[in-house]
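ugh ok so i messed up the first submission bc i forgot one of the chains. this is the corrected input, ALL of the components this time, i swear. 369 residues overall. if the numbers dont match what u have on ur side tell me asap before i send this to the collaborators (the ones from the other lab, u know who)
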Amino acid sequence: MKAFFRPLCGIYVHWPYCLSKCPYCDFASRVCKNPDYDALLKGYERDILIFKEKMPHPPLITSLYFGGGTPSLMPILFFDSFMTLLQKNFSFAPDIEISLEANPDAVTQEKMRDFKQAGVNRLSIGVQALNESDLRFLGRRHSLARALDCVHEAQNVFDNLNIDLIYARPNQTLSDWEKELKEALSLNLPHYSLYQLTIEENTVFGKKGILSATEETAVALYELTNELMRTHHVPDYEISNYARAGFECRHNLTYWHYADYLGLGPSAQGRIAGFETVNPRTPADWLAKGPSLTKLTPLETAQERVIMGLRLKNSGFPCSQLAQSGIQKACENGWGYVSDNLFYPTKSGFLMLNQLILLVAPDSIPTEQ
Ligand SMILES: C[S@@+](CC[C@H](N)C(=O)[O-])C[C@H]1O[C@@H](n2cnc3c(N)ncnc32)[C@H](O)[C@@H]1O
Ligand code: SF4
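and heres the new structure output, hopefully the right one now
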């Protein structure tokens, strides 16, 4: 019998609605109390069929990630129909990771159990800050008490659990953040996503001219974060992601290992069979126009692989796929080193990642891939 090739693949589903818009957030999310669920499900189905047609081999889905927006707002009956749609179209790996983002004010323990029953096995809670005044500053709807209750409720339901926190807030001192991070660590979770606040032009913060921490403070905060996480056995495996051994998010690793993934829903992007897929940002445009697909050139593919691959800690990148002159300069700058024909960024390399990528990304197609 002929061997049957199934490429491993992740799926990202974007849910575009929230209960309110946070002033720092530039994700494709908007407030809508009564979305047209039937139209949305049809839109997701259309994306699936378009992408499936481009894939020469039926993939095996190893991870599924519901992000947003606030996907924990999805009514459970809708979520069930979504899962049925996905399972009708794809084969799921027996150990598939299914993550869902939840906001403390937009999920109950009962709903967590419903999601688990429907297949979710990893919950990611957007806590953002562990003090009341910064929760207010960040425009969050939930109190500190509700965020902590939500984490405890989730611990009763899920083993695989993440919280998101945003640091490098204006005027945040090292000792403020150390106190907060220690409190986060006392929750004893297997995974933490710790993002430095970025100010995007289009957001309320951007328009008000709010500034995040200075570069010097941001570097010091990042180093403190890595050190504290490492000593508590939750080391970094990527710039903003920290996990106990075995709890690294498989879906994130799909991106960084540059494996194929489908992006379904407004603003979602994907990579399938050498195509880059981009969906329109607003729900109305997405429903009306659908995805656009662009064939990537071999050079673009090689450059993107570098952009994604260099983010990962502890896994060297093949020198043969990088610009040789760039490697030399990066090593001279102290941004990286070479061992066994693999290039590894150093701590300063990670702090200067964008410049490092510009330096080492190939400007012609590498001969060896
Ligand atoms: C796609 S958002 C959705 C999460 C969820 N709706 C929530 O708010 O809890 C995922 C995460 O990105 C992070 N994030 C969003 N905007 C950010 C910004 N401007 N700077 C840093 N992190 C940001 C937050 O930690 C957030 O939890
Ligand atoms: S941070 Fe989360 S809840 Fe706030 S607007 Fe963005 S996606 Fe919505």
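quick check: The chain has two domains: 8-255, 298-369. that seems consistent at least. Residues 18, 21-22, 25, 27, 29, 68-70, 103, 126 surround iron/sulfur cluster (ligand 2) (CB under 6 Å).
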